[in-house]
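Subject: sequence -> structure tokens, single chain

Hey, anyone have a minute? Need the predicted structure for the following. Not urgent.
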Amino acid sequence: MKNLLSMKDLTIEEITTILDRAEILKQYGIRELPVNYMVSNLFFEPSTRTKMSFEVAERKLGLETIPFEAGSSSALKGESLYDTLRTLEEIGMDVVVIRHPEERYYEDLIGKLNLAIINGGDGSGQHPTQSLLDLFTIKEAFGGFKGLNVLIAGDIAHSRVAKSNADALTMLGANVTFLCPSEWAGEFPSVCEWEGVIEESDVVMLLRVQHERHDGESRFTKEEYHQRFGLTVEREKMMKPGSIIMHPAPVNRDVEIAGSLVEGRRSRIYKQVENGVYIRAAILEVLLKGRELTWRKSLRVPMY
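Reply:
Had a minute. Here:
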């Protein structure tokens, strides 16, 4: 695996390798790598969990994290993403984590660069590292995926998390159902009512309404959305024993999920945050393991 760009690109074997490595790291701790690799996090959109958990994982692995601020970079002067990455490659970067507002921003980069690229989210496209930590959290709860019923509710059309998880969970044998207003279904068949699906769901995954990706105002007030499409306290009582609640966050309490359920007994929302560090450390290990840096220029220091 040279890059991590989309869940569509991963095999079951590659997913399993990352999940198994994350489990070992969580059990025994993240240790520094024997090679002093350099990494930079290029976030062209706001992020808390993804950016910070990558930074924590990088520090625990002993990587040199080189700061990058999109708001003060040459991108503001019109420099292309390729030229930015080509510059970082030449000064010795081994891996970059990129979040970008443009969907599939990475298509024009494939095969042109020697540094490794981790997609930290591309517009409404994919979010593979979030999907992998979601899979890890589900596996911790149920031991596997085959036959599980996963209900994903919210702004499906604009959610890279929904798309990534749909690809991965279906590949791994889970049954995925989408619940949302009909105009937010995007490419997926969906239902509009909780009754008949929530009672059979092992995992209920809520998604934030991504107002920043909508044209115009929503036809729902926050209260209306919560009552029709949110996980209310009353609906939580309909969930079967042993089922769990997930959310990639940020959470809008009392909109997509009742505030009292965020840290309730079924919730794995903050467990997902914790697991993000182990998954991202595992991804970095897998990408960097055995990496041949023949492209990096050797320093020839004269002897005196």
